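EI: anyone free to look at a 351-residue chain?
SC: sure, send it
EI:
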Amino acid sequence: MVLSIPVAVKAQGLVDVKIDSVQILVGEQTGYHISATVKPGQRVVFPQWKPQQQITPGVEVVDAPIIDTVDANDGFIKVSQHLVLTSFEDTLYYIPKQNVKIDNKTLQTNNLALKVLTVEVDTLHPNQFFGPKDVQDNPFMWSEWIELLWLGIAAVVLYILCLLAYIRLKSNKPFKFKVRIVKRIPPHQKALNTIQALKNGGTDRANTEDEVKAYYTALTDALRLYMQDRFGFNAKEMTSAEIISHLKQEEDQSKLQELTSLFETADLVKFAKYTTAISENDRNLVSAIDFINTTKQENVPTEERIEPTITKQQRQTMQARTWLKISIGIMIILATAIIVYVCWQLYDIRA
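SC: here you go
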């Protein structure tokens, strides 16, 4: 069978031959390669070989040849035939030239030499022939295991430290901070509720001196508390004159005139045993309500958000817990990485 590969035409074909090793032992194999550099379109025919066929007496072809083609640049391609050769006799062989046909032209390769060597045998001591030995275990050496041993101990220590840190973290319970939402009654509503209670209790209809005194005391106290919350000055600790003087700087004078009359009447009742008529009590009550309604603030928030107060010691404890959690995470990652590395090294040594 003649192998033929269509390739491009080349006016002058080039052939080459090489061998992988010019010296082998008896029974060893070596590669033998014939190549032709041609132009695309040329037809290349290599010598025909079959397995166990001798390329030269004493040198056999092991397998059927393999043909491949590669680009040789500059518009040429390289077509190669690859053979595997072997020999079972120790001597020097000359591999003759091989004919390579390119289109209608036959070119020859160079001849090569192959040296086959035999294994030396001690013929003087034929009894000292030792058969194949069984598989032996490598001797145990601490130098090969000491690094893995220390790494394993380090991983165990890290896991123990993680456990102790976790126990410490669980024993110190975290602080629980709650945000409180407190219902707030607007200052004007507080004052109006107090005055409404006076009306409902009939104190505005007081007849005796003590009842009248208690009535005006409750009425003025409600107004003082309202002024303190509404205007921000300490009305509970001020005299009536000081309160009126302070309010004159920002409030309607007509309203203050009625309020002035109310406080003057209250002072007379509490300190001069002044007796009032029912109509005067009603008038002063209306004046107080009118003053509150005139000066009250609209759309006052009815709820207040009270944030918890964190002490310096609590803040330090929280920071310590945070760092303890981070340390536990780092130690777990590091210890796990060490264990993985040790297991991989043990598998590699065993393999």
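EI: Residues 312-350 form the longest helix (39 residues).
SC: 👍
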